Amino acid sequence: MENTEEIKEEFGRTKHNTSEDFRNLFPVSRQNVHPRITFKSKGSNPRVLFVYHNDLEEGFIHPALAVLGGMMVQNGIEAKLFDTSFWRDINSPLVENDRQVLEKLGEYKKVEGYNPQREIVDIKERFREEVEKFRPDLIALTSTSYEFNNVTKFILPTKREFGIPVIVGGPHATVAPDRAIQNQAIDIVCVGDGEKSLYTLVKRMNLGEDVSNIPSLWFKDHDGRVTKNPRGNQIEHMDDLPYPNWDMFDSRHRIRPFEGKLKNYGYFEISRGCPFKCSYCIQPALHEIPNEEGEGHATNYKFHSAREIVNRVKSYKQKYGFNHIQLIDENLPTMNSKNLEEIATLWAEEINPNKDVTIFTMSRPEYLVRRIKDGRFVSSGKVEILKEMGVAMVALGAESGNEWLRANVLNRPMKQGILEAASKVLMDNGIQVSIYNILGFPFETREMMFDTIDQLWRIKPDRYAVRHLSPYPGTPIRDLCVAGGFIHPSYEDITPQISKSSEGPKLTGGSKSFLHEPVLNLPGRLHKSKIIARNKTTGEYEIIEHPSNSEFITHPSKEEQITTRKLFGIYAYSPTKAMWPVIELAEDRGLAKGYPELQNMIYLAFATARANRSEDDDSYRPELNIDKITYDDISWVSNDASLYIGRPRALLPVIELAEGRGYAQRIRGLQEYVRNAFIEDIKEREKLGIKNLLEIRARWEEQKGRMGFMAVS
Question: pLDDT (tens digit, 9 = 90+) per residue, 625-638?
């Protein structure tokens, strides 16, 4: 698939067959299996309390809640938001959100006027006070699998006290409704888009009518019996959706840094769905959920019209005065060129005539370049349109640099070289690039992890992000992980334990953020007979061929995955690969094995010398120091000083090893190992045409000649 039209042809026009697994999970029944469910009328002005649980991320206007809030406003229903984004629960082991951690560690720049610190409160008590004051008729929340247990935990006591029904929607409820409905805090689960179903529910509740047959909703009665209604018809035309209600959200959500500057943010969802079926995403599950006719959806992929997108953005710009837009979905470049050009023309005239509004969006590389007959990639023409609209940065999903993993585990095949080509076209047009990566896949070896690092090294984008795999319930890769015994089927329901570490309280066991550590229990050695994939025709798991030449493959341990993530940018932004063997000394491997002080010294040297450029690396980062080494710094060098002059001064401890000092006196072969890397690095720089250090070296050689120094080889 090389362009939008081909992708649309393949993904948008075929009837989708629902698997037996999903038919069993979502039985289609037109009869009420259980007794009639009725909620008492509450009068002419029903009230809905929305809940937004956010304990890790910084400010962000949640798109689903904003639209649902808009639906309530549009229909005269009073709505309010209970939002934890600016609080830290008094009982939580998390003492800082990600922004605070990343500012402290140097990954994010501190921006004057922006304070991510949270107020310490008792969230459970705050929620009770809000419910007692607002007296809602319904409590509505959206949740990911990671957040689900934490949010329902503080809701449950108040729900029991006041007897208010609770409905949950969002990713977890949609792909794991059977698990969500069993939670004691939950009475109703919404599967899929919730606008129509929620409005119908509130309306019928207010009139005292039966609600048990509303499409897309599952109900649990007092005896724990569940009524499962089939997924109703989804929103057919995005333009029919109400305008999002941003006023529900604290205004602090709209003030955030971008690239070191404080921006007034606007958040927009211009589409829903995705034509692809990557195994680590819930989109394949959304295609499978049957509707009232028992059929799956060939596609759940739709856009606002060009005119409507511009109308909404223009209206909100006039009201809120933002100067930066984050497109929440990933699909602006996915539009066909005709519609994109229409948006760009209207955008220039009505939204951004002064070029004062920047945009962050995401894309797949397939939409930005196309391959021509000789195998080269050229721009599809869309990048140039994005530039004219004011796009400042585009994030591209790489996930893995290994072709076998992408094809067999991720269901994410990409043509070789397409990611590099798309990145180059963006950079050539002055648009910054961020590359998203994932580590810790089943059947991923250390060599495969380094394929991902090597891919980033070739691209050297402006930014990157790397996470550990989080196999969410409902995703194909979760099923694979359960089948392989790599994760407990109910992992998220296991209560995490609080342990102490040198970095403070830490969550271990059970559900925790994939930002911080791997969650899969991958065996160190795995026989090839255990390497499996699901047959797309039969649905059964089958043994597949692994590219490793050995009878067994070796999974990196959790500790090695964490260390690799910590060093990810240091490897990737090294000017040449010749220094990789020295960077590897920061791992518990080779000559550094068993020497933690040496490992830490190497890490600190390179971490201080390299611009890591990570969007969200939560590992320790010292202040960057790229002051250059002069001869005065290394007058003690007995060999060729020009190997080192001009390099970052932070690398002096590494140079000492190359000159036989420190640990090089204790570890046999270490001096030669490190010195050879410096020599090879100079050779590689010459091959790659990296001039800065070569020019410094040449000037130093010339200076030595004039001053009569004797060169020692």
Answer: 778 999 899 999 98
Rounded Cα distance, 328 and 360, in Å: 9
Structure token digits, residue 441: 């896949």
More confident residue, 293 or 679: 679
Burial of 656 (0-12, 13-18, 19+ CB in 10 A): buried
Query: Could you write out the DSSP letters of every residue in 215-228?
Result: TTEEEE-TTS-EEE
pTM for the whole structure: 0.87
Query: What one-character DSSP code corresponds to residue 48?
Result: E
Pick the closest to residue 320 from 104, 66, 37, 542 (CA basis): 66
3-class secondary-structure state, position 399: strand
Residue with tokens 């008792």: 122
Residue with tokens 């000092």: 661
- What would the pLDDT profile of 393-444 be if each residue is shown by its tens digit? 999 999 999 999 999 999 998 988 999 999 999 999 999 999 999 999 999 9
The CA-atom distances, in angstroms, between 386 and each of 264, 360, 376 are: 20, 10, 22
Distance (Å, whole) CA 590 – CA 478 = 34
Task: Report d(CA 657, CA 638) in Å as an integer.
Answer: 13
Go through the chain and tell me how many residues it has.
713
| Span 493-505, average pLDDT | 58
pLDDT at 334: 85
How many other C-beta atoms can be found within 10 angstroms of the C-beta atom of residue 463? Answer: 18
3-state class of 393 per DSSP?
strand
The answer to whether the beta carbons of residues 324 and 330 sit under 8 Å apart is no
Contact 287, 254 (CB under 8 A): no
CB 437 within 8 A of CB 452: yes
Per-residue pLDDT tens digits for 661-700? 999 999 999 999 999 999 999 999 999 998 888 888 787 7
In sequence order, the 6+-apart residues with CB closer than 8 A to the CB of 101 are 618
Residues 437, 453: Cα–Cα separation, whole Å: 9
Q: Residue 477, SS3? A: helix
Mean pLDDT (whole number) for 343-371: 93
Query: Quick one: 298 exposed, middle or buried, by C-beta within 10 A (0-12, 13-18, 19+)?
Result: middle
Contact between 313 and 268 under an 8 Å Cβ cutoff? The reply is yes
Query: Alpha carbon of 534 to those of 16, 277, 519: distances in Å?
Result: 18, 14, 22
Question: Regarding beta strands 377-379 and 369-371, do their DSSP bridges make them parallel or antiparallel, or are they unpaired?
Answer: antiparallel
